[in-house]
Amino acid sequence: MSDDERDAMPPRPDDADFPARRGPHCDGLEELDAAVATCRACPRLVAWREEVAAVKRSAFSEWDYWGRPVPGFGPGDAVLAIVGLAPAAHGGNRTGRMFTGDASGDVLYAALHAVGLASRAASTHIGDGLELRGVRITAPVHCAPPANRPTPAERDTCRAWLARELRLLRPTLRAAIALGAFGWQSLLPVLADAGWQVPRPRPAFAHGAEVRLPATDGGRELYLLGCYHPSRRNTFTGKVTASMIEEVLRRGAAIAGL
């Protein structure tokens, strides 16, 4: 089969270039989220997420694990984006919602509720009534990775989903918060492709970092903020506290007009 013949065929979820071929053609977030959930482009991640979903953790033995890529969560007209790392094996990979069902999510959603950006202080499962107010939560990698460490190749394969998500949010998005260095470093090249000018050299991640990104497409500028990831390790050691996260969220909300 020639390259032209292959390109003319609809992309298959297990193709290595499925995100790159399918993502740019999603016309809205609903279509994008549905496409993300079918992706099987990274064999290592597929094998891991499905093994975890089959073996389960004893505390969740009665759960029917999601076991697929986890789409973004939040309204399609969000003015503030929160970008993490990847779903947790027994969190998002179990529940099917970003930052839901694990310790990191417990901290993040409590902080979002404390500053008025979430309707509830806890996110336990899809259909629990939780709503986000002007906020969209997503990640550079949509599958749970072994040891919470996606490879650079897996991050790059998944990038097309995040790029399309930001393009679809472009008309309303005013600020983005990167949770951790991985999210920050993954987000910068995508923002450059989505219509914002990223400084050279690229700004370094730090908690509380704030960078103004002028628009390159005639749209509005974007502010990028850094926040330590609310991982169990970071919160247990005190590297990040609830008040520190709330402070960054309040700043992002203020910039975005929430």
From TrEMBL:
Keyword terms of this UniProt record = 4Fe-4S, DNA damage, DNA repair, Hydrolase, Iron, Iron-sulfur, Metal-binding
Q: Name one GO molecular function term.
A: DNA-deoxyinosine glycosylase activity
Q: What is this protein called?
A: Type-5 uracil-DNA glycosylase
Supply the source organism for this entry.
Wenjunlia tyrosinilytica
Q: Which terms does the UniProt entry file under GO BP?
A: base-excision repair
Stretches assigned to the Uracil-DNA glycosylase-like domain: 71-249
The annotated regions of Basic and acidic residues compositional bias extend over: 7-23
Q: Give the start-end ranges of region Disordered.
A: 1-23
Q: Where are the transmembrane segments?
A: none
Q: Which Pfam families match?
A: UDG
So what family is this one in?
Belongs to the uracil-DNA glycosylase (UDG) superfamily. Type 5 (UDGb) family.
